[in-house]
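Database export, one record per block. Field names are fixed; values are copied verbatim from the stored entry.
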Amino acid sequence: MSALPGWLRAAAFAIAFAVVPAFAQTPQSQGSDARIVVTGEGRVSVAPDYAAISAGVVSRAKTAGEAADANAKSMAAVISALTDAGVARNDIQTAQ
């Protein structure tokens, strides 16, 4: 076998020893004790890339202008809390 390339000798060696134990094993009984038990655990952690949140503020005042100003201040506080929590300002949109 010395005339064979090294990789071919290694492959022949691995095949020879992989086959031999198969012949040496005794057959197992197929009774009620035959079973396969598999146990596993997995976890994946990733940063979320999208979230849709619907929120609103309501203010009551003597005039519509005063209520609109109060709403603007309240929504500014909501946006500030989101940015303090790590949400980029570009990722926050408001409507109405």
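Remark 1: The chain is about 40% helix and 0% strand.
Remark 2: The radius of gyration is 35 Å.
End of record.
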